[in-house]
Amino acid sequence: MKIPIKPINARWTDEQWFAIYATGTNILVSAGAGSGKTAVLTERIIQKLKSGVKLSSLIVLTFTKAAANEMKSRIRNELAKAIKEGYPLEEEFAYIDQASIQTFDAFSLSLVRKYHYKLNLPKHITIGDKVILEKTQIEILDQIFEEYYQNPTQEFINFLSTYALKDDQEIKKYILSMCSKLQLVIDVDGYLETFSQRFFNEEFIKERIKEYLDLFKAYKDKIKLRLEKLAATISDDVLCNHLEELKNSLSPLFSATSFYDYIQCQNLKRSIPRTPSNGDSEEKNILKKEKDLIKKDLETLSRLVKYDSEEQMLDEILQTKPICMLLIDIIKKFMTRYNQFKHQNHLYEFMDIAKLGIKLLKENDDLREYIKLNTHEILIDEYQDTSDIQEEFISLISNNNVYMVGDIKQSIYRFRNA
Questions:
Q1: pTM score
Q2: Which of the listed CATH numbers 3.30.70.100, 3.40.50.300, 2.40.340.10, 3.90.700.10 matches domain 14-109+375-406?
């Protein structure tokens, strides 16, 4: 589909026009809320249908059922208009309810159900009731904790004394939250098995220490920018002299490069000189506002200072290893028992289905190629890079033909060649 010349009276901006007609590669259309991203996606679909592309060859994915229903409604309305204009699209209009316009979860489920026999699964796959599954999760974790209470290790005792101040309910909630987040990892077992060697090696920790120091530098640069802004704004002699005093009072921060240097800056807020009573009133108000912001930045910096040296930070991180490994053991036991429960009761969560979908596609080259050959384009509304599983799934069925619309502030991942 070549990009046609945009009519003078077209409702679309040049950028939107290009986004509607561009082809030949993966495309990420990035724009904020209210910018018409979904309308552009809808128009792209309509133009493809007008050019002869079949709706059955498009996979349109959303993140909510409501968004999928809205997309169907938009396409239905636009097709009705096109038919009135003389386009022979009655067949596509009749196909809308059967079209693959659905959530990622629904698409994964439809694929797994259709090819259940390739996974040795029953035809009728049941998504477990959320209330029952959550109740089961709590029961399993309670049982695991009870076993530790019966035969407590020193690590478990240290763990409770550090993190369970009143009772163990909050820490259990935290563990369940961690388990939920781990569901987004494709290979959970592999991730947990290699956790120690990945996160408790000296090179990794030193990189985190550097990031920690970079955070201090970011606040330091922020304060410098505030002073530069004031220097460009203030012309009153009295206030200019005061600004120099302010800069001098902050010089220990500007020369700081190490943990020790930043520790010396913890009480720097106290050394900030008081604003003169005389001087231009308007400029003085600007100065006061910026100084208040500088003081807040210094307070934040002071709270960040927790270590005397890089060595101390490294040592304290390494000291957390026994507790982290205990947590991993608890999580492994929980995952094993929870998955056994679901398997024995033939219950699944949508994330289980997505992983089964990936397994299905990876183990069946013929199916993967069939989907690729019969899919003109995969269009994703409100794209976000929040799940490795969804990205892996899409990469398996795409062929340099993914069209994504989303907010770049929410989504920074780009497909290859996008």
A1: 0.73
A2: 3.40.50.300
